[in-house]
Write a structure and sequence with these properties.
The complex is a heterodimer of chains A (357) and B (114). Chain A is of the alpha/beta class and 357 residues long. Chain A is built from 8 helices and 20 strands. Chain A has a 5-stranded parallel sheet with strand order 5-2-1-9-20, covered by helices on one side. Chain B has 114 residues and is mainly alpha-helical. Classes of the chains: A alpha/beta (357), B mainly alpha (114). The interface between A and B is medium-sized, with 22 and 21 residues.
Chain lengths: 357, 114
Amino acid sequence: MAGKCLYLIILLIPDMEGKVVVIGAGAAGMEISGQLAKAGYPVTLLEKNTLAGGHVRNWYHLFPDMRDSMEVIHYLDEINGNRNISVHYGTEVSDIQKKHGSFMVNSTDGTYYEADAVVVATGFDLFRSERKEEYGYGIYDNVITSAELELMFRKGEIRRHDGTIPQKIGLVHCVGSRDEKVGNPYCSKLCCVAAVKQAMELKKHIPSSRVFCFYMDIRMGGAHYEELYRESQEKYSVNYIRGKVSEVSENIENRLIVKVEDTLAGRPLKMELDLLILMAGMEMSKSGLALAENTGLKTGENRFFAAADNHTGSNRGNMKGIFYAGTCTAPMNITETISHARAALPEVIDYLESRKK
Amino acid sequence: MDKFGFSILKGRHIDYDSNDRSVADYISSKEPSFNVCIECGCCTATCTTGNFTSFSLRELQILLKRGENDKVHDVISKCMLCGKCTLVCPRGVNTRNVITLAREAFKLKIKNAV
């Protein structure tokens, strides 16, 4: 009994040494929170939405092995079940102030959280496809984004706007990536493999359909990506046309017309489609950008948080005691996001322990 | 290997070493964005001239880079300089200036000035 009381007393004493605030409860934020809590550090996890899990929650099956994204969510939920973590939903961070060696993390609703170290895991936003106006998103009903297609997969129904089943479907790579015209010269690197995955799933849902990927370069740099690409050709007869779509229009029958150069055939190509999917790229999140500006955190050329060292310190930035985890530093897949977040653990612990001395 | 006739007919291959790339060099010295093309074909897809003729800016610029100037010389005049290609180029190539400079280079070439 006495032991239990002592334990409770220890729990109730506010221990400011080693208290960490993690901003963002997506895959990265949940991973680092779980790891820190497991190592015995109290974590306050702040999430602007009402649910944890970030973008992963919106995906259906994950490349390259087509597992259900919910399995990853379950893993993250499990490591976040640690009592050292207190999660605050609906809390958007406006800025971080450094005071006498510790931090004040201010939320937009006026509350603040004290911390000895901060991990920023504000993630990414998908490129808003309506900005690429010539592709007709928001203008033509049957132009949708890759994220919207994932929701259709989850529902188990792939439909055109009028409720009919699309038989000829196109996927446009590099929407908002590798495009100077929208200010994103960088490669989001996941859209290629996501397109391959979605093309295969479209064929699984609608075996009679024909699916076309329009690409500039196919980038299959991840584990098992190239195999997936090959499988999409071998088993699902997905067609690949090398050329950047220049514009999309609609004909009188409400079908989409895509204009592209088939660069390998060396001829302009026109194609009618029932449904067009825009593979939206990854951008630094709006909330991450605001946080950078208000706090003085440096961003790089592509607006993601700038690393202290590109090779050896991508979890650190320009402010001591503030760390980065996940896609707020660069486009990453889920595997990379979790690895990157996990890699922040020794960095944070080193910093906290050095402060004690 | 000679017995198998393992050689490429002269007219078939790009003779990179003997080809004259002075036109491409001239363009890239005055318009460095000429170098950053990734052959996506967006310019050709949107091209007004390409809608009616076999004109393809993507093809022309790669031919210039390989020194296949003869294939470009006769068609470069077809472009109407409408500039749609410049609007769509994801790499920010100043395509219109590339055309203008190519024409300029061919004119100078006749005078042996390139």
